[in-house]
Amino acid sequence: IYETLREGVRLETKYILADFFDEMEGVTFAFVCVDKGEARAGIIDVLKQKKISFIDVGMGLSRDKGPISGMQRVTHVAAGSADNILEKQWIPLSDPPDDIYRNNIQIGELNALNACLAVIKFKQLRSFYNDDCEFSQLLFTLDSIHVATEP
Protein backbone atom coordinates (compact mmCIF):
# COMPACT_ATOMS: atom_id res chain seq x y z
CA ILE A 1 0.00 0.00 0.00
CA TYR A 2 2.79 2.45 0.90
CA GLU A 3 4.47 1.91 -2.46
CA THR A 4 1.44 3.44 -4.20
CA LEU A 5 1.31 6.40 -1.81
CA ARG A 6 4.98 7.34 -1.55
CA GLU A 7 7.95 7.28 -3.88
CA GLY A 8 11.14 5.56 -2.79
CA VAL A 9 9.50 3.06 -0.43
CA ARG A 10 10.52 -0.51 -1.14
CA LEU A 11 9.42 -3.53 0.85
CA GLU A 12 11.51 -6.67 0.75
CA THR A 13 10.73 -9.74 2.76
CA LYS A 14 13.83 -11.82 3.22
CA TYR A 15 15.68 -13.86 5.76
CA ILE A 16 18.59 -11.73 6.97
CA LEU A 17 21.87 -13.59 7.13
CA ALA A 18 25.14 -12.48 8.70
CA ASP A 19 26.57 -11.47 5.31
CA PHE A 20 23.87 -8.94 4.32
CA PHE A 21 26.20 -5.93 4.65
CA ASP A 22 26.26 -5.15 0.92
CA GLU A 23 22.47 -5.50 0.62
CA MET A 24 22.08 -2.45 2.88
CA GLU A 25 23.68 -0.16 0.30
CA GLY A 26 21.39 2.82 -0.29
CA VAL A 27 19.17 2.10 2.73
CA THR A 28 18.42 5.30 4.68
CA PHE A 29 16.17 3.92 7.42
CA ALA A 30 15.31 0.47 8.79
CA PHE A 31 12.81 -1.15 11.13
CA VAL A 32 14.28 -3.98 13.22
CA CYS A 33 11.51 -6.37 14.20
CA VAL A 34 13.02 -9.73 15.13
CA ASP A 35 12.32 -12.40 17.70
CA LYS A 36 15.91 -13.49 18.30
CA GLY A 37 18.36 -11.39 20.29
CA GLU A 38 21.40 -12.77 18.49
CA ALA A 39 19.90 -11.88 15.10
CA ARG A 40 19.11 -8.38 16.40
CA ALA A 41 22.73 -7.94 17.52
CA GLY A 42 24.07 -8.80 14.06
CA ILE A 43 21.58 -6.57 12.26
CA ILE A 44 22.28 -3.64 14.59
CA ASP A 45 26.01 -4.10 14.09
CA VAL A 46 25.60 -3.69 10.33
CA LEU A 47 23.23 -0.71 10.71
CA LYS A 48 25.73 0.88 13.09
CA GLN A 49 28.64 0.37 10.68
CA LYS A 50 26.59 1.81 7.81
CA LYS A 51 25.35 4.72 9.99
CA ILE A 52 21.72 3.91 9.15
CA SER A 53 18.99 5.27 11.43
CA PHE A 54 16.55 2.65 12.65
CA ILE A 55 13.70 1.82 14.98
CA ASP A 56 13.95 -1.39 16.98
CA VAL A 57 10.87 -2.90 18.62
CA GLY A 58 10.57 -5.55 21.27
CA MET A 59 8.55 -6.99 24.11
CA GLY A 60 9.36 -8.02 27.62
CA LEU A 61 6.56 -10.34 28.69
CA SER A 62 6.00 -12.68 31.60
CA ARG A 63 3.34 -14.92 33.12
CA ASP A 64 4.38 -14.72 36.77
CA LYS A 65 0.84 -14.15 38.07
CA GLY A 66 -1.10 -16.12 35.45
CA PRO A 67 -2.19 -13.63 32.79
CA ILE A 68 0.44 -12.08 30.54
CA SER A 69 2.08 -8.93 31.83
CA GLY A 70 4.98 -6.84 30.72
CA MET A 71 5.80 -4.08 28.31
CA GLN A 72 6.42 -3.20 24.72
CA ARG A 73 9.38 -1.15 23.56
CA VAL A 74 10.03 1.17 20.62
CA THR A 75 13.61 2.45 20.43
CA HIS A 76 14.75 5.02 17.86
CA VAL A 77 18.44 5.00 17.05
CA ALA A 78 19.60 7.99 15.02
CA ALA A 79 22.51 7.53 12.62
CA GLY A 80 25.74 7.63 14.57
CA SER A 81 24.10 7.25 18.01
CA ALA A 82 23.98 3.44 18.23
CA ASP A 83 26.87 3.17 20.69
CA ASN A 84 25.17 5.60 23.08
CA ILE A 85 21.85 3.69 22.93
CA LEU A 86 23.56 0.29 23.25
CA GLU A 87 25.45 1.49 26.35
CA LYS A 88 22.08 2.16 28.00
CA GLN A 89 21.16 -1.51 27.39
CA TRP A 90 17.69 -0.57 26.16
CA ILE A 91 17.88 -3.07 23.30
CA PRO A 92 18.26 -6.73 24.32
CA LEU A 93 20.92 -8.51 22.30
CA SER A 94 20.25 -11.98 23.71
CA ASP A 95 17.15 -14.10 24.29
CA PRO A 96 15.36 -14.21 27.64
CA PRO A 97 15.49 -17.59 29.41
CA ASP A 98 11.69 -17.90 29.79
CA ASP A 99 10.43 -16.72 26.42
CA ILE A 100 6.62 -16.87 26.23
CA TYR A 101 6.68 -15.06 22.90
CA ARG A 102 6.71 -18.21 20.77
CA ASN A 103 3.91 -20.15 22.41
CA ASN A 104 1.11 -17.69 23.10
CA ILE A 105 -1.73 -16.72 20.80
CA GLN A 106 -2.10 -13.26 22.39
CA ILE A 107 1.15 -12.14 20.82
CA GLY A 108 -0.60 -11.22 17.53
CA GLU A 109 -2.27 -8.05 18.81
CA LEU A 110 0.82 -7.08 20.78
CA ASN A 111 2.92 -7.33 17.60
CA ALA A 112 0.33 -5.20 15.78
CA LEU A 113 0.39 -2.55 18.53
CA ASN A 114 4.20 -2.52 18.56
CA ALA A 115 4.22 -2.04 14.78
CA CYS A 116 1.74 0.85 15.05
CA LEU A 117 3.83 2.56 17.73
CA ALA A 118 6.95 2.18 15.58
CA VAL A 119 5.26 3.64 12.48
CA ILE A 120 3.91 6.57 14.51
CA LYS A 121 7.45 7.30 15.76
CA PHE A 122 8.78 7.08 12.20
CA LYS A 123 6.09 9.49 11.01
CA GLN A 124 7.00 11.87 13.85
CA LEU A 125 10.59 11.78 12.62
CA ARG A 126 9.37 12.61 9.12
CA SER A 127 7.12 15.45 10.44
CA PHE A 128 3.80 13.81 9.55
CA TYR A 129 2.90 13.91 13.27
CA ASN A 130 3.90 16.38 15.94
CA ASP A 131 6.62 15.19 18.33
CA ASP A 132 6.65 17.19 21.56
CA CYS A 133 8.93 14.88 23.52
CA GLU A 134 11.33 13.63 20.80
CA PHE A 135 11.92 10.35 22.63
CA SER A 136 14.57 7.78 21.87
CA GLN A 137 12.66 5.08 23.69
CA LEU A 138 8.99 4.48 24.41
CA LEU A 139 7.77 1.85 26.85
CA PHE A 140 4.13 0.80 26.90
CA THR A 141 3.13 -1.23 29.95
CA LEU A 142 0.49 -3.83 29.33
CA ASP A 143 -0.54 -4.06 32.99
CA SER A 144 -1.42 -0.42 33.65
CA ILE A 145 -1.70 0.89 30.07
CA HIS A 146 1.00 3.42 30.87
CA VAL A 147 3.43 5.03 28.44
CA ALA A 148 6.87 6.23 29.48
CA THR A 149 9.48 7.83 27.25
CA GLU A 150 13.22 8.37 27.53
CA PRO A 151 15.00 11.19 25.68
Short description:
28% of the residues lie in helices and 22% in strands.
Strand order of the largest sheet: 1-2-3-4-5
List unreliable stretches of 5+ residues.
Answer: none
The helix tally amounts to 4
Give the helix/strand class.
alpha+beta
Which geometry do the CA atoms define? globular
Helix percentage range: 25-40%
Strand content: 15-25%
> Mean of the pLDDT scores?
86
Spell out the helices and strands N to C: HEHEEHHEE
Report on this structure.
This protein has 4 helices and 5 strands; from the N terminus they run αβαββααββ. With 151 residues, it is an alpha+beta fold. A 5-stranded mixed sheet has the order 1-2-3-4-5, with helices on both faces. The chain starts with a helix and ends with a strand.
Secondary structure blueprint with pairings:
Blueprint: H1 2-5, E1 29-32, H2 37-50, E2 53-62, E3 69-77, H3 82-87, H4 107-125, E4 137-141, E5 146-150
Distinctive features:
151 residues, alpha+beta, five-stranded mixed β-sheet, 5 strands, 28% helix, 22% strand
